[in-house]
Protein backbone atom coordinates (compact mmCIF):
# COMPACT_ATOMS: atom_id res chain seq x y z
CA UNK A 1 0.00 0.00 0.00
CA UNK A 2 3.02 2.29 0.20
CA UNK A 3 2.69 2.91 -3.54
CA UNK A 4 -0.75 4.49 -3.14
CA UNK A 5 -1.86 7.76 -1.59
CA UNK A 6 -5.41 7.73 -0.24
CA UNK A 7 -7.27 10.84 -1.36
CA UNK A 8 -10.81 10.57 -0.03
CA UNK A 9 -13.16 8.01 1.47
CA UNK A 10 -15.98 7.65 -1.06
CA UNK A 11 -17.97 4.71 0.27
CA UNK A 12 -18.63 2.67 3.37
CA UNK A 13 -20.52 -0.55 2.89
CA UNK A 14 -21.23 -3.80 4.66
CA UNK A 15 -18.06 -5.52 3.52
CA UNK A 16 -15.57 -2.73 3.09
CA UNK A 17 -14.63 0.91 2.86
CA UNK A 18 -13.72 2.37 -0.53
CA UNK A 19 -11.20 5.13 -1.10
CA UNK A 20 -10.30 7.11 -4.12
CA UNK A 21 -6.54 6.88 -4.30
CA UNK A 22 -3.66 7.75 -6.58
CA UNK A 23 -0.64 5.73 -7.58
CA UNK A 24 2.35 7.80 -6.47
CA UNK A 25 4.54 6.63 -9.33
CA UNK A 26 2.18 6.75 -12.31
CA UNK A 27 -0.38 9.30 -11.15
CA UNK A 28 -3.25 6.96 -12.03
CA UNK A 29 -6.44 7.36 -9.99
CA UNK A 30 -7.84 4.08 -8.67
CA UNK A 31 -10.57 2.85 -6.32
CA UNK A 32 -9.23 0.86 -3.36
CA UNK A 33 -11.60 -1.29 -1.37
CA UNK A 34 -10.39 -2.06 2.14
CA UNK A 35 -12.17 -5.18 3.40
CA UNK A 36 -13.52 -5.10 6.94
CA UNK A 37 -12.99 -8.80 7.52
CA UNK A 38 -9.53 -10.03 8.48
CA UNK A 39 -7.78 -12.45 6.13
CA UNK A 40 -5.11 -14.61 7.76
CA UNK A 41 -3.74 -16.37 4.65
CA UNK A 42 -3.00 -15.52 1.05
CA UNK A 43 -4.93 -18.60 -0.13
CA UNK A 44 -8.06 -17.29 1.54
CA UNK A 45 -7.72 -14.03 -0.40
CA UNK A 46 -7.05 -15.39 -3.88
CA UNK A 47 -9.74 -18.05 -3.56
CA UNK A 48 -12.54 -15.55 -3.04
CA UNK A 49 -14.99 -16.07 -5.88
CA UNK A 50 -14.90 -12.38 -6.72
CA UNK A 51 -11.13 -12.40 -7.05
CA UNK A 52 -10.95 -15.71 -8.90
CA UNK A 53 -13.55 -14.65 -11.47
CA UNK A 54 -12.02 -11.24 -12.17
CA UNK A 55 -8.56 -12.78 -12.53
CA UNK A 56 -9.91 -14.67 -15.54
CA UNK A 57 -11.42 -11.63 -17.22
CA UNK A 58 -9.80 -8.95 -19.34
CA UNK A 59 -12.47 -7.15 -21.31
CA UNK A 60 -13.18 -3.50 -22.08
CA UNK A 61 -16.71 -3.81 -20.66
CA UNK A 62 -15.81 -5.61 -17.43
CA UNK A 63 -14.35 -3.56 -14.58
CA UNK A 64 -10.69 -4.41 -14.04
CA UNK A 65 -9.33 -5.65 -10.75
CA UNK A 66 -5.83 -4.26 -11.00
CA UNK A 67 -4.24 -5.58 -7.83
CA UNK A 68 -4.88 -7.58 -4.66
CA UNK A 69 -2.87 -6.64 -1.59
CA UNK A 70 -2.80 -8.35 1.80
CA UNK A 71 -1.04 -6.36 4.47
CA UNK A 72 -1.19 -7.02 8.22
CA UNK A 73 -4.11 -9.42 7.66
CA UNK A 74 -6.08 -6.67 5.87
CA UNK A 75 -7.20 -7.28 2.28
CA UNK A 76 -7.19 -4.44 -0.25
CA UNK A 77 -8.75 -4.74 -3.72
CA UNK A 78 -7.48 -2.16 -6.21
CA UNK A 79 -9.89 -1.42 -9.07
CA UNK A 80 -9.80 0.90 -12.03
CA UNK A 81 -11.67 4.09 -11.19
CA UNK A 82 -14.96 4.94 -12.90
CA UNK A 83 -16.78 8.27 -12.67
CA UNK A 84 -20.30 7.13 -11.75
CA UNK A 85 -22.81 4.29 -12.08
CA UNK A 86 -25.72 3.98 -14.47
CA UNK A 87 -28.33 4.80 -11.84
CA UNK A 88 -26.60 8.07 -11.04
CA UNK A 89 -26.37 8.82 -14.74
CA UNK A 90 -30.10 8.22 -15.20
CA UNK A 91 -31.03 10.21 -12.10
CA UNK A 92 -29.34 13.39 -13.30
CA UNK A 93 -30.76 13.16 -16.83
CA UNK A 94 -33.03 16.07 -17.76
CA UNK A 95 -34.32 14.36 -20.87
CA UNK A 96 -34.76 10.79 -22.07
CA UNK A 97 -31.94 8.87 -23.69
CA UNK A 98 -32.17 8.53 -27.46
CA UNK A 99 -32.36 5.14 -29.17
CA UNK A 100 -28.72 5.48 -30.19
CA UNK A 101 -27.62 6.24 -26.62
CA UNK A 102 -29.50 3.24 -25.25
CA UNK A 103 -28.10 1.11 -28.07
CA UNK A 104 -24.56 2.23 -27.20
CA UNK A 105 -24.91 1.38 -23.53
CA UNK A 106 -26.75 -1.91 -23.92
CA UNK A 107 -24.48 -3.14 -26.70
CA UNK A 108 -21.45 -2.72 -24.46
CA UNK A 109 -23.12 -4.45 -21.50
CA UNK A 110 -24.16 -7.39 -23.67
CA UNK A 111 -20.57 -7.67 -24.91
CA UNK A 112 -19.34 -7.79 -21.33
CA UNK A 113 -21.98 -10.39 -20.42
CA UNK A 114 -21.26 -12.52 -23.49
CA UNK A 115 -17.57 -12.51 -22.57
CA UNK A 116 -18.31 -13.33 -18.92
CA UNK A 117 -20.72 -16.15 -19.79
CA UNK A 118 -18.22 -17.55 -22.27
CA UNK A 119 -15.62 -17.59 -19.50
CA UNK A 120 -17.97 -19.69 -17.38
CA UNK A 121 -19.57 -17.16 -15.00
CA UNK A 122 -22.91 -15.41 -14.63
CA UNK A 123 -23.36 -12.26 -12.57
CA UNK A 124 -26.64 -12.76 -10.61
CA UNK A 125 -26.84 -9.14 -9.43
CA UNK A 126 -27.16 -6.94 -12.50
CA UNK A 127 -28.73 -3.55 -11.81
CA UNK A 128 -27.99 0.06 -12.83
CA UNK A 129 -25.91 0.59 -9.68
CA UNK A 130 -23.56 -2.24 -10.73
CA UNK A 131 -22.90 -0.82 -14.19
CA UNK A 132 -20.11 1.75 -13.97
CA UNK A 133 -19.79 4.59 -16.47
CA UNK A 134 -16.98 6.90 -17.55
CA UNK A 135 -17.90 9.17 -20.44
CA UNK A 136 -19.38 6.82 -23.07
CA UNK A 137 -17.86 3.61 -21.72
CA UNK A 138 -19.88 1.30 -19.46
CA UNK A 139 -18.56 -1.71 -17.54
CA UNK A 140 -20.05 -4.56 -15.52
CA UNK A 141 -18.91 -4.45 -11.89
CA UNK A 142 -19.57 -5.94 -8.43
CA UNK A 143 -18.81 -9.63 -8.77
CA UNK A 144 -19.65 -10.47 -5.17
CA UNK A 145 -22.54 -12.76 -6.19
CA UNK A 146 -20.94 -14.18 -9.33
CA UNK A 147 -21.47 -17.90 -9.89
CA UNK A 148 -19.80 -20.53 -12.05
CA UNK A 149 -22.05 -21.78 -14.84
CA UNK A 150 -20.59 -25.26 -14.41
CA UNK A 151 -21.22 -25.37 -10.66
CA UNK A 152 -23.81 -27.76 -9.31
CA UNK A 153 -27.14 -26.55 -7.91
CA UNK A 154 -28.85 -25.83 -5.61
CA UNK A 155 -27.98 -22.15 -5.83
CA UNK A 156 -28.69 -19.37 -3.37
CA UNK A 157 -32.35 -18.42 -3.35
CA UNK A 158 -31.88 -14.69 -2.74
CA UNK A 159 -29.89 -13.00 -5.47
CA UNK A 160 -30.02 -9.58 -7.09
CA UNK A 161 -32.03 -6.51 -6.25
CA UNK A 162 -35.75 -7.23 -6.31
CA UNK A 163 -36.62 -4.95 -9.25
CA UNK A 164 -34.25 -6.85 -11.53
CA UNK A 165 -34.73 -10.34 -10.10
CA UNK A 166 -35.83 -13.03 -12.56
CA UNK A 167 -39.20 -14.72 -11.85
CA UNK A 168 -37.64 -18.17 -11.43
CA UNK A 169 -35.56 -16.75 -8.57
CA UNK A 170 -38.59 -14.99 -7.07
CA UNK A 171 -40.32 -18.39 -7.04
CA UNK A 172 -37.36 -19.87 -5.14
CA UNK A 173 -36.02 -22.06 -7.93
CA UNK A 174 -32.55 -23.47 -7.26
CA UNK A 175 -31.93 -24.35 -10.91
CA UNK A 176 -31.58 -20.92 -12.48
CA UNK A 177 -28.87 -20.14 -15.04
CA UNK A 178 -27.15 -17.26 -16.81
CA UNK A 179 -30.57 -16.31 -18.19
CA UNK A 180 -31.22 -14.44 -14.92
CA UNK A 181 -28.72 -11.87 -16.24
CA UNK A 182 -30.74 -11.52 -19.43
CA UNK A 183 -33.97 -10.85 -17.53
CA UNK A 184 -32.20 -8.12 -15.57
CA UNK A 185 -30.95 -6.56 -18.81
CA UNK A 186 -34.50 -6.45 -20.18
CA UNK A 187 -35.61 -4.49 -17.11
CA UNK A 188 -32.56 -2.22 -17.30
CA UNK A 189 -33.05 -1.54 -21.00
CA UNK A 190 -36.68 -0.53 -20.42
CA UNK A 191 -35.58 1.74 -17.57
CA UNK A 192 -33.04 3.43 -19.82
CA UNK A 193 -35.83 4.34 -22.22
CA UNK A 194 -38.27 5.66 -19.60
CA UNK A 195 -35.99 6.59 -16.65
CA UNK A 196 -38.43 4.62 -14.47
CA UNK A 197 -38.12 1.01 -13.24
CA UNK A 198 -40.19 -1.50 -15.17
CA UNK A 199 -41.02 -3.75 -12.19
CA UNK A 200 -40.83 -1.61 -8.98
CA UNK A 201 -42.11 -4.23 -6.53
CA UNK A 202 -42.09 -3.52 -2.80
CA UNK A 203 -41.90 -7.22 -1.87
CA UNK A 204 -41.47 -10.56 -3.64
CA UNK A 205 -45.24 -10.97 -4.00
CA UNK A 206 -45.66 -7.40 -5.23
CA UNK A 207 -42.77 -7.89 -7.62
CA UNK A 208 -44.53 -10.84 -9.26
CA UNK A 209 -47.74 -8.77 -9.35
CA UNK A 210 -45.89 -5.96 -11.15
CA UNK A 211 -44.40 -8.43 -13.63
CA UNK A 212 -47.83 -9.91 -14.38
CA UNK A 213 -49.11 -6.40 -14.93
CA UNK A 214 -46.48 -5.84 -17.62
CA UNK A 215 -46.10 -9.16 -19.45
CA UNK A 216 -49.29 -10.95 -18.37
CA UNK A 217 -49.67 -13.98 -16.11
CA UNK A 218 -47.86 -17.15 -17.23
CA UNK A 219 -49.77 -20.04 -18.76
CA UNK A 220 -49.03 -23.71 -19.28
CA UNK A 221 -47.97 -22.76 -22.80
CA UNK A 222 -45.73 -19.83 -21.90
CA UNK A 223 -44.10 -21.26 -18.77
CA UNK A 224 -45.17 -24.68 -17.52
CA UNK A 225 -42.18 -24.94 -15.18
CA UNK A 226 -43.18 -21.69 -13.54
CA UNK A 227 -46.64 -22.96 -12.75
CA UNK A 228 -45.08 -25.99 -11.11
CA UNK A 229 -42.76 -23.76 -9.07
CA UNK A 230 -45.73 -21.72 -7.88
CA UNK A 231 -47.63 -24.87 -6.85
CA UNK A 232 -44.60 -26.08 -4.91
CA UNK A 233 -44.69 -22.96 -2.72
CA UNK A 234 -48.50 -22.76 -2.69
CA UNK A 235 -48.57 -19.54 -4.69
CA UNK A 236 -51.18 -18.52 -7.25
CA UNK A 237 -50.33 -16.02 -9.96
CA UNK A 238 -52.57 -12.94 -9.99
CA UNK A 239 -54.83 -12.30 -12.94
CA UNK A 240 -54.42 -8.61 -13.70
CA UNK A 241 -55.01 -6.31 -16.62
CA UNK A 242 -52.01 -5.61 -18.81
CA UNK A 243 -51.00 -2.84 -21.18
CA UNK A 244 -48.86 -2.74 -24.31
CA UNK A 245 -45.10 -2.19 -23.89
CA UNK A 246 -45.15 0.15 -26.87
CA UNK A 247 -47.51 2.37 -24.85
CA UNK A 248 -45.34 2.21 -21.74
CA UNK A 249 -42.23 2.91 -23.82
CA UNK A 250 -43.56 5.31 -26.49
CA UNK A 251 -41.73 6.60 -29.53
CA UNK A 252 -39.28 3.70 -29.56
CA UNK A 253 -38.48 1.38 -32.45
CA UNK A 254 -40.26 -1.94 -32.88
CA UNK A 255 -36.88 -3.66 -32.63
CA UNK A 256 -36.27 -2.15 -29.20
CA UNK A 257 -39.69 -3.25 -27.91
CA UNK A 258 -39.20 -6.72 -29.42
CA UNK A 259 -35.84 -7.17 -27.68
CA UNK A 260 -37.20 -6.09 -24.29
CA UNK A 261 -40.12 -8.50 -24.63
CA UNK A 262 -37.82 -11.39 -25.47
CA UNK A 263 -35.47 -10.61 -22.59
CA UNK A 264 -38.40 -10.40 -20.18
CA UNK A 265 -39.93 -13.75 -21.12
CA UNK A 266 -41.33 -15.85 -18.29
CA UNK A 267 -39.58 -18.95 -19.57
CA UNK A 268 -35.77 -18.62 -19.26
CA UNK A 269 -35.35 -20.86 -22.31
CA UNK A 270 -37.14 -18.26 -24.44
CA UNK A 271 -34.78 -15.45 -23.46
CA UNK A 272 -31.87 -14.86 -25.85
CA UNK A 273 -28.33 -15.38 -24.64
CA UNK A 274 -26.03 -12.37 -24.51
CA UNK A 275 -24.37 -13.48 -27.77
CA UNK A 276 -27.78 -13.84 -29.43
CA UNK A 277 -28.90 -10.44 -28.14
CA UNK A 278 -25.88 -8.86 -29.85
CA UNK A 279 -27.22 -10.18 -33.16
CA UNK A 280 -30.73 -8.80 -32.63
CA UNK A 281 -31.92 -6.31 -35.28
CA UNK A 282 -31.88 -3.55 -32.65
CA UNK A 283 -28.08 -3.69 -32.85
CA UNK A 284 -27.85 -4.03 -36.63
CA UNK A 285 -25.90 -0.77 -36.91
CA UNK A 286 -23.26 -2.07 -34.49
CA UNK A 287 -20.16 -3.86 -35.68
CA UNK A 288 -19.54 -7.13 -33.85
CA UNK A 289 -17.73 -10.35 -34.73
CA UNK A 290 -19.01 -13.30 -32.67
CA UNK A 291 -16.27 -15.56 -31.26
CA UNK A 292 -17.40 -18.39 -33.53
CA UNK A 293 -16.66 -16.29 -36.64
CA UNK A 294 -13.28 -14.86 -35.69
CA UNK A 295 -10.36 -15.98 -37.80
CA UNK A 296 -7.54 -18.02 -36.35
CA UNK A 297 -5.08 -16.09 -34.28
CA UNK A 298 -7.56 -13.38 -33.32
CA UNK A 299 -7.59 -13.28 -29.54
CA UNK A 300 -8.68 -9.70 -28.90
CA UNK A 301 -11.92 -9.10 -27.08
CA UNK A 302 -14.91 -7.86 -29.11
CA UNK A 303 -14.78 -4.15 -29.98
CA UNK A 304 -16.68 -1.69 -27.83
CA UNK A 305 -19.93 -0.20 -29.07
CA UNK A 306 -19.46 2.35 -31.78
CA UNK A 307 -16.68 0.54 -33.65
CA UNK A 308 -18.15 0.16 -37.05
CA UNK A 309 -15.29 0.31 -39.56
CA UNK A 310 -16.49 0.07 -43.13
CA UNK A 311 -20.12 0.03 -42.07
CA UNK A 312 -19.96 3.82 -41.92
CA UNK A 313 -19.50 3.91 -45.68
CA UNK A 314 -22.90 2.30 -46.03
CA UNK A 315 -24.67 5.27 -44.48
CA UNK A 316 -24.89 3.93 -40.94
CA UNK A 317 -24.76 6.53 -38.19
CA UNK A 318 -21.67 6.55 -36.02
CA UNK A 319 -21.90 6.55 -32.28
CA UNK A 320 -20.13 9.12 -30.16
CA UNK A 321 -16.40 9.27 -30.75
CA UNK A 322 -15.64 8.35 -27.17
CA UNK A 323 -16.59 4.78 -27.95
CA UNK A 324 -14.29 4.32 -30.91
CA UNK A 325 -11.32 2.03 -30.55
CA UNK A 326 -11.64 1.81 -26.78
CA UNK A 327 -8.80 -0.25 -25.30
CA UNK A 328 -7.81 -1.59 -21.94
CA UNK A 329 -4.63 -0.41 -20.28
CA UNK A 330 -3.41 -3.90 -19.62
CA UNK A 331 0.27 -3.36 -18.93
CA UNK A 332 0.04 -0.72 -16.27
CA UNK A 333 2.21 -2.38 -13.61
CA UNK A 334 5.87 -2.99 -14.24
CA UNK A 335 8.43 -4.92 -12.26
CA UNK A 336 10.71 -1.91 -12.41
CA UNK A 337 8.12 0.19 -10.64
CA UNK A 338 7.65 -2.19 -7.74
CA UNK A 339 9.85 -1.49 -4.74
CA UNK A 340 10.80 -4.28 -2.37
CA UNK A 341 7.79 -5.35 -0.36
CA UNK A 342 7.63 -4.69 3.36
CA UNK A 343 7.44 -7.77 5.60
CA UNK A 344 3.93 -9.21 5.78
CA UNK A 345 2.84 -7.76 2.40
CA UNK A 346 1.70 -9.98 -0.44
CA UNK A 347 0.67 -8.85 -3.90
CA UNK A 348 -0.75 -10.23 -7.08
CA UNK A 349 -0.18 -7.85 -10.00
CA UNK A 350 -1.68 -7.74 -13.49
CA UNK A 351 -3.94 -10.69 -12.80
CA UNK A 352 -6.06 -10.17 -15.85
CA UNK A 353 -2.96 -10.14 -18.07
CA UNK A 354 -1.66 -13.36 -16.61
CA UNK A 355 -4.85 -15.31 -17.11
CA UNK A 356 -5.60 -13.65 -20.43
CA UNK A 357 -2.23 -14.79 -21.78
CA UNK A 358 -2.61 -18.34 -20.55
CA UNK A 359 -6.10 -18.74 -21.91
CA UNK A 360 -5.54 -17.55 -25.46
CA UNK A 361 -6.76 -20.27 -27.78
CA UNK A 362 -7.54 -20.59 -31.46
CA UNK A 363 -11.27 -20.54 -32.03
CA UNK A 364 -12.76 -22.94 -34.55
CA UNK A 365 -15.01 -21.42 -37.19
CA UNK A 366 -18.61 -22.45 -36.74
CA UNK A 367 -21.97 -21.21 -37.90
CA UNK A 368 -23.15 -18.19 -35.83
CA UNK A 369 -26.15 -18.77 -33.64
CA UNK A 370 -29.32 -17.19 -34.90
CA UNK A 371 -31.36 -14.86 -32.79
CA UNK A 372 -34.33 -16.67 -31.26
CA UNK A 373 -37.50 -14.51 -31.49
CA UNK A 374 -39.60 -14.13 -28.33
CA UNK A 375 -42.69 -16.13 -27.54
CA UNK A 376 -46.21 -14.88 -27.68
CA UNK A 377 -46.42 -11.17 -26.88
CA UNK A 378 -48.62 -10.01 -24.05
CA UNK A 379 -50.23 -6.61 -23.31
CA UNK A 380 -48.56 -4.72 -20.53
CA UNK A 381 -48.88 -2.01 -17.85
CA UNK A 382 -46.60 -0.41 -15.28
CA UNK A 383 -46.64 1.34 -11.97
CA UNK A 384 -45.04 4.65 -12.79
CA UNK A 385 -44.02 5.48 -9.24
CA UNK A 386 -40.50 4.69 -8.21
CA UNK A 387 -39.75 3.55 -4.70
CA UNK A 388 -36.97 5.61 -3.20
CA UNK A 389 -33.61 3.99 -3.29
CA UNK A 390 -30.39 5.33 -1.96
CA UNK A 391 -27.93 6.95 -4.27
CA UNK A 392 -24.76 4.94 -4.32
CA UNK A 393 -21.45 6.38 -5.33
CA UNK A 394 -19.39 4.37 -7.78
CA UNK A 395 -16.95 3.17 -5.19
CA UNK A 396 -19.73 2.58 -2.66
CA UNK A 397 -21.02 -0.14 -4.95
CA UNK A 398 -17.60 -1.69 -4.82
CA UNK A 399 -17.85 -1.53 -1.06
CA UNK A 400 -21.07 -3.52 -1.11
CA UNK A 401 -19.61 -6.35 -3.14
CA UNK A 402 -20.52 -9.53 -1.35
CA UNK A 403 -17.51 -11.70 -0.63
CA UNK A 404 -17.56 -14.88 1.39
CA UNK A 405 -14.74 -17.34 1.85
CA UNK A 406 -17.11 -20.29 1.83
CA UNK A 407 -17.68 -19.83 -1.89
CA UNK A 408 -15.43 -22.02 -3.99
CA UNK A 409 -14.62 -21.92 -7.70
CA UNK A 410 -14.14 -25.03 -9.74
CA UNK A 411 -11.27 -26.22 -11.87
CA UNK A 412 -8.60 -23.66 -10.93
CA UNK A 413 -5.31 -24.58 -9.33
CA UNK A 414 -4.59 -22.70 -6.15
CA UNK A 415 -1.45 -20.61 -6.19
CA UNK A 416 1.20 -21.65 -3.65
CA UNK A 417 1.37 -19.93 -0.26
CA UNK A 418 3.52 -16.84 -0.31
CA UNK A 419 5.99 -15.76 2.31
CA UNK A 420 6.58 -12.27 3.53
CA UNK A 421 8.88 -10.30 1.31
CA UNK A 422 8.00 -12.21 -1.87
CA UNK A 423 6.59 -10.39 -4.86
CA UNK A 424 4.17 -12.33 -7.05
CA UNK A 425 3.95 -10.94 -10.54
CA UNK A 426 3.62 -12.20 -14.08
CA UNK A 427 5.94 -12.35 -17.03
CA UNK A 428 5.17 -13.94 -20.38
CA UNK A 429 2.14 -15.74 -19.02
CA UNK A 430 4.04 -17.40 -16.13
CA UNK A 431 3.83 -16.57 -12.47
CA UNK A 432 7.14 -15.76 -10.86
CA UNK A 433 8.08 -15.53 -7.22
CA UNK A 434 10.71 -12.87 -6.73
CA UNK A 435 12.56 -12.41 -3.45
CA UNK A 436 12.59 -8.78 -2.37
CA UNK A 437 15.77 -9.38 -0.30
CA UNK A 438 19.22 -9.58 -1.94
CA UNK A 439 20.86 -13.01 -2.23
CA UNK A 440 24.43 -13.09 -0.83
CA UNK A 441 25.78 -14.94 -3.87
CA UNK A 442 24.83 -12.04 -6.14
CA UNK A 443 22.72 -14.29 -8.37
CA UNK A 444 19.06 -13.49 -9.04
CA UNK A 445 16.67 -15.86 -7.33
CA UNK A 446 13.73 -16.73 -9.58
CA UNK A 447 11.43 -19.64 -9.08
CA UNK A 448 8.83 -20.50 -11.69
CA UNK A 449 5.48 -21.71 -10.43
CA UNK A 450 3.15 -23.76 -12.57
CA UNK A 451 -0.04 -22.06 -13.67
TrEMBL record:
Domain of life according to the entry: Eukaryota
Which reactions appear under catalytic activity for this entry?
A: L-threonyl-[protein] + ATP = O-phospho-L-threonyl-[protein] + ADP + H(+); L-seryl-[protein] + ATP = O-phospho-L-seryl-[protein] + ADP + H(+)
Q: Which Pfam families match?
A: Pkinase
Q: Where is this region: Disordered?
A: 352-394
Q: Could you mention a single GO BP entry for this protein?
A: intracellular signal transduction
GO cellular component, as recorded: cytoplasm; cytoskeleton; nucleus
For ATP, which residues are the binding ones? 34
GO MF entry, a single one: cyclin-dependent protein serine/threonine kinase activity
Q: Which residues form the Protein kinase domain?
A: 4-283
Query: Where in the cell is the protein located?
Result: Cell projection, Cilium; Cytoplasm, Cytoskeleton; Nucleus
Which UniProt key words apply to this protein? ATP-binding, Cell projection, Cytoplasm, Cytoskeleton, Kinase, Magnesium, Metal-binding, Nucleotide-binding, Nucleus, Phosphoprotein, Serine/threonine-protein kinase, Transferase
Xref: InterPro entries: Kinase-like_dom_sf, MAPK, Prot_kinase_dom, Protein_kinase_ATP_BS, Ser/Thr_kinase_AS
Requisite cofactors: Mg(2+)
- Please give the family membership noted in the entry: Belongs to the protein kinase superfamily. CMGC Ser/Thr protein kinase family. MAP kinase subfamily.
Which PANTHER family does the record associate with it?
A: MITOGEN-ACTIVATED PROTEIN KINASE
Q: What is the name of this protein?
A: Cyclin-dependent kinase
Amino acid sequence: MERYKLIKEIGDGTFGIVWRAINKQSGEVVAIKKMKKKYYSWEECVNLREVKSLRKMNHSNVVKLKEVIRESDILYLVFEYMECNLYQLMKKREKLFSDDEVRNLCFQVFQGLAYMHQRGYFHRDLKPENLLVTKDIIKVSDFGLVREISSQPPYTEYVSTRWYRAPEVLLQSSLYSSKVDMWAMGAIMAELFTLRPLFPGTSEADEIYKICGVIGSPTAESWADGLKLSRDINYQFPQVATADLSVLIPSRSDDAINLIKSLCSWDPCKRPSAAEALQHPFFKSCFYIPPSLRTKGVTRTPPSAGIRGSVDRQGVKRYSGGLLNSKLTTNFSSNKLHPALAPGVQRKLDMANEDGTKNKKTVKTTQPSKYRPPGKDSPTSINKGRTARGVSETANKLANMSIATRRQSLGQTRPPPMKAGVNWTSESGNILLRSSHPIPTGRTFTKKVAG
